[in-house]
Amino acid sequence: MFDGVQLNDPGALTFGPQMVQAIRRFSSAVTSLKLDVHLVVDRPSRYIQALAKAGADRVILQLESLSGVDHDRLKEAVEQCQEVKRAGMRCGVCIAPSTPCSQVLELVSMGCVDVVNLLAVEPGFGGQKFQVSVKEKIQQLRSFIDEHRIPDLIMVDGGINTQTARLCLEAAGASSLVAGSFVFNHKLGVLQALEEIR
Fold it and tell me: Which GO molecular function annotation, any one, does this entry have (predicted)?
C-alpha cells in the first residue's frame, strides 16, 4: 500500500483499506487467504485501525517510512508494532536494499515482528531486476535467527522468478517469497507462474 507521499512518485500510488476490505470479502467466500499489507506510507499509524477493520491479517511496516534515525526509529518501530498487535493483527517489518540488516535485529530479538521482508528491489515499482546483494542480507538474518533460536521469519520481495526463488530459498535461507510481475505478467497465466516458482 503506497500513498505517493512516502515515495514521491505518481507510480507509487496504490490502493487503500477499501481494496483490502473488498479482497477480504471475496476471499472469505472461497478460501482462507491470509492478507499481508506492506505499508509504505507517510504516518503509517493513521492506517492501522482501518486495515484491522478491513480484515488485514498482518501489517508489514516499511522501516524507512518511520521518522527519526537509529534509536528514535527503533522506538517508533516498537510502538507501531505494538499498535498493530493491539488492533488484532500480526506485524512485520520491511527494509529497502540499502538498509543494513542490523537495523532490524533488535526488533526481531524483542519479538516485535513475526516476519522480516527483505526487499531485493527499490520499494514502489514493479518489474525491477533482483539485486543479488540481498543474498548476503538473507544469510545474515538466517545466521542471527538460527543462533538465537528464533522462529523462521525471512521473506524476500522483488524480482522473484524461478531462478531468484531458488537463490533465496536454497542458497541463502529465506522462508517465504513475494512475487508480483513474474506471476501477473506470465504468458501462460498466474497458475502456471506459481507452479514454476513452487
Answer: racemase and epimerase activity, acting on carbohydrates and derivatives
Question: Is position 2 within any domain?
Answer: no
**What is the value of pTM for the model shown?**
0.90
Range of the domain at 146: 10-197
Residue 1 included in any domain: no
User: What is the enclosing helix (H) or strand (E) of 109?
Assistant: helix 102-109
Tens digit of each residue's pLDDT (9 = 90 or more) over 53-83: 999 999 999 999 887 666 688 899 999 999 9
Nearest-CA neighbor of 64 among 101, 95, 89, 27?
A: 95
Q: Is the pLDDT of residue 19 over 70?
A: yes
Between helices 134-147 and 102-109, what is the axis angle to 10°?
30
The Cα 16–Cα 72 span in angstroms is 27
Other CB atoms within 10 A of residue 112 CB: 22
Give the torsion sign (CA, 39, 44, 46, 49). positive
